[in-house]
Amino acid sequence: MTAFFVQTLNGLASASSLFLVAVGLSLIFGVTRIVNFAHGSFYMLGVYIAYTCATSLSGALGFWGGVLAAGLAVAVIGVLVEMLVLRRIYSSPELLQLIATFALVLIIKDAALAIWGPEDLLGPRAPGFTGAVEIFGRAFPTYDLLLIALGVAMLLVLTALMKKTRFGLLLRAATEDREMTDALGVNQKLLFTAVFALGSFLAGIGGALQLPREPATLAMDLGIIADVFVVVVIGGLGSLHGAFVAAIIISLVKAYCIGLGSQTLFGVEFEFSKLTLVAEFIVMALVLVFKPNGLFGKPIIHSQTSAAVELPLGKPSNIQLGALLAGILLLAAMPAVFDEYTSVLATDVLIFALFAASLGLIIGTAGLGSFGHAAYFGLGAYGAALATQAGFGFLSSLFLGAALALAAAMVFGWFCVRLSGTYMAMLTLAFAQIVWSIVFQWDAVTGGSNGLVGIWPPEALSDRDYFYWTTLTVCGVGVLVCWWVVYTPFGYALRAARDSTVKALAIGLSVKRLQWAGFALAGGLAGVAGAVYVFSKGSISPEVSAIPRSVDALVMVLLGGINTLLGPVVGAAVFTYLQDTLARSTDYWRAVLGAVILLLVMLFPRGIVGSIKQFAQRRRAA
Amino acid sequence: MSKALEVSGLKKSFGGVAAVRGIDFHADAGEAVALIGSNGAGKTTCFNLINGQLTPDGGRVSLFGLDITGRSPELLFRSGVARTFQITATFASMSVRENVQMALMSRHREVAGFFSLATSRHTVAANELLADVGLSEQASRPCAALAYGDLKRLELAVALANEPRLLLMDEPTAGMSPEERNALMRLALRVCRERKLALLFTEHDMDVVFTHADRIIVMNRGRLIAQGSPSEVRANEEVRAVYLGSLHV
Questions:
Q1: pLDDT-based confidence at A383, cuts 50/70/90?
Q2: Which of A374, A533, A537, A582 is the most buried (most CB within 10 A)?
Q3: CB pair distance less than 8 Å for A495 and B93
Q4: Residue A526 half-sphere exposure, CB side, CA atoms within 13 Å?
Q5: What topology does CATH give the domain A2-290?
């Protein structure tokens, strides 16, 4: 019983920071409809800035002044980001916005690396709150009690701000109906900037307050953002009280899991302390299935985005078929000019071309935003690796890997297609995190963070040219399937459901079932890519299913051009080459990549192939 | 023979507000029936109860004697009910012909097909339907390039692809010029007669209603207050009092 009570207090102490960060993201989303991936980076900056203040100025001034300074500095950074970047993409499609904010994550991470270095930095304890009090015979840090009090205090302050001030009134009005507040003459620009300042301030404070509890690290940004997404989705996007309740739920679930430790249920031993991520995402999935808008959320009204109208597809022309044949022959002849390095790179490009093309199928043709496509790539990879270790042959392992990915996509997809827009994107991300955390924590089977090694193709394919041709065959067929589907009745039905759901239902299409099938197919094909990937590298680690890998795929699709057949493949080639070249030429390749992504999103929102097509159309029209 | 569409005792409340309080009417094959009423009379609710957008609290909707009460839009399509929307709903990324082909593929249950080209399915049938509504010349154009009046025709062609026995049109002439309105209604009436389908439509424009409907059903406060031929309805005292009073018809 006392253990339970202590875990409850632990959970509540963690909830405070989580609440501050989550409510910031939620307020920003409510008003601007932007899901800010970089919000976790703002939190991380808060921790680092507080560290610098607390260590350069000692004592209470250094620490408490540092907390305030961190909040203010991060607010300024938030405002700059809003004015320089986000202002230009408010009317862009949702996925482009998410990609742009992810580019900010990359840039901020490298900036932090340049300023504070790669080492973990342990901050001082809070002056005046270094001791512990005894509760039920256990020592409990006074700082944790302070955090609990601060969380409640901030909730009251924010509630008063929302209810009693004109600024709060405007925030609530804009969250309710942005177009209406705009029509009533509210200065939107100013309001958006102000809400960014407030949200970023809260993220900075939330980070700074964590300094005495955990060291500042460069991995904090994506670590917290996953938790924050979960909190915001459970509470309901845009809801202040929802964020508070959900932060408590999630923190308690985590604390109890850690408290349970290792337990035996039905004869099977469960390491609950390692299941924290799984547990919080299961809570989120359950909430979304029963309350699709979160506990306190209202349905999101998506304002119309200016999506480019596609031209009808028609039949593949003879010219296109001829170009396809020429392309295949050219790719098959490539080993003649390869050296060792280009051969490896070209194999990577082929694998990622299939990965991106399969994602293009769901986000382009089916119009469903998936933010966790790496889950299926990773499952395909691990499935194939485990099959090989179990003694299966090369082709059987590829098949089993793809089958595992397909099965997972069928289970996850069933939930995902029931939600819409932002919630769906977040649920796909949540499922990918579940996969990642299982892979990361299940040492006995997956090798944990070390992964699995020594997964090589059979002797006959060990020559790199032969392996290239094998990859070309397997991934090439996969890409052709992605292209072919678009022309089939099934592909047309997916597009019909995307263009007008009400009309699709009225002509008798089972929209949800079609989307489910599309999601599963794309997942299975991503699994094929993942399975080939293992054999090309000889090893596999959990990163293959982590958030950055999902984002890589999205960037490839958007870089090449969404809703174009060639786009994802071109995007995969350019992205893979760019990443590789950058990674070898500078330590700060992430920042450069982020800057390139930002420029692309702002200057060429249609992607490479889309922009070329648009240019050609204009010339024809002129 | 049973009536094409038969509605009896249809009811629907939202919270404590009774929007439709027990409605009975019918429509025969080859007959055009207009459902009218002032704002808040319950006609949109009534319409949505029949087209599957809403599930009724009570009552029955049947099609040639077959109970179709509360069926989903998808199942209604399979039962031979087609509909058009007040705000035209079409598949913007497809050509005009492909829009019709999509409906034909759905009717023939081919949408799970992986082994054929969608644009080659039912080309002849699609062309015939487009010729019927006067869109032959536009067949290969992108649907997004059509004028509003032509989109309405396209919606009609898509609806007819299902060879429906009941056609539901929600405010078919909203947003059109007077000439376009009459042209579209003449077209709708012709297909209604030729294909012997029952046509039920809601409409705000009283000129359109009294010119084209065979029978008019008038709703007020969730109840049916009158029905009959245009001249009968025009002469009805209660209708004049609650609805048409100020409109000199």
A1: very high
A2: A374
A3: yes
A4: 34
A5: ABC transporter involved in vitamin B12 uptake, BtuC (1.10.3470)
> How far apart, in whole angstroms, are the C-alpha atoms of residue A66 and residue A51?
8
CA A160, CA A459: separation in Å to the nearest integer?
Answer: 70
Model pTM score: 0.86
- CA A199/CA A89 separation, integer angstroms: 19
Within the 504-533 window of chain A, which residues sit less than 8 Å (CB to CB) from chain B?
504-510, 514, 517
Q: Name every chain A residue with its beta carbon within 8 A of the beta carbon of B117.
A: 315, 487-488
What token pair was written down for A405?
Answer: 């990915």
Look at residue A353 in the predicted model and tell me its pLDDT: 94
* Domain residue ranges in chain A: 2-290, 318-547
Whether B82 and B168 have beta carbons less than 8 Å apart is answered as: yes
Asked if A621 has any chain B CB less than 8 Å from its own CB, the reply is no
Beta strands at A262-265 and A268-271: parallel, antiparallel or unpaired: antiparallel
User: A245 vs A62, which has greater pLDDT?
Assistant: A245
**Sign, Cα dihedral of A551, A557, A563, A565:** negative
The Cα–Cα gap between A16 and A20 comes to: 6
| CB-closest option in B93, B103, B116 to A499 | B93
pLDDT, tens only, A264-322: 777 666 677 777 777 887 888 788 778 878 888 777 655 444 445 577 777 788 888 88
CB contact under 8 A, A493 and B83: no
Q: Which of B102, B113, B118 sits opposite A507 (nearest CB)?
A: B102
Identify residue B208 by its one-letter amino acid code. Answer: V
Return the sign of the alpha-carbon dihedral for residues A304, A422, A418, A299. negative
Distances (CA, A) of A128 to A53, A60, A143, B231: 17, 8, 9, 90
Rounded to whole angstroms, how far apart are CA atoms B123 and A426? 41
Among B74, B91, B161, the residue with its CB nearest the CB of A500 is: B91
Sheet containing B17-27, strands listed edge to edge, beginning at the edge strand earlier in sequence: B17-27, B5-14, B58-63, B66-67
The answer to whether residues A123 and A54 touch, using CB atoms and an 8 Å cutoff, is: yes
Q: Which amino acid is at B119?
A: T
- A-chain residues near B115 (CB < 8 A): 488
CA B132, B136, B140, B141 torsion: positive or negative? negative
The DSSP code sequence of A265-303 is ETTEEEEGGG-HHHHHHHHHHHHHHH-TT-SS-----PP
- Output b/e per residue, B72-85; b: 16+ Cβ within 10 A: ebbebbebbbbbbb
The domains located in chain B, with CATH, are 1-80+164-249 (3.40.50.300), 92-163 (no CATH)
In whole angstroms, give the CA distance from residue A347 to residue A464.
9
For residue A301, the model assigns a pLDDT of 59
Q: Please give the backbone phi and psi of residue A205, each rounded to the nearest 5 degrees, phi first.
A: -60, -45
Q: How far apart are CA A577 and CA B67, in angstroms?
A: 62
Placement of tokens 């593929």 in the chain:
B105
Indicate the residue type of B43: K
Report yes or no: A304 at the B interface, CB cutoff 8 Å.
no
Decide if B95 and A502 are in contact by the 8 Å CB cutoff. no
Distance in angstroms (rounded) separating the CA atoms of residues B96 and B70 = 32
Least CB–CB distance from B92: residue in A309, A315, A508: A309
Give me the amino acid identity at A610.
G
Task: Give the contacts of B145 (CB within 8 A, at least 6 positions apart).
Answer: none
One DSSP character per residue, A161-226 reads HHHHSHHHHHHHHHHH-HHHHHHTT--HHHHHHHHHHHHHHHHHHHHHHHTTTS-B-TTHHHHHHH
B77 in reach of chain A (CB within 8 A): yes
Question: Helix/strand/coil (H, E, C) string of A564-584?
Answer: CCCHHHHHHHHHHHHHHHHHH
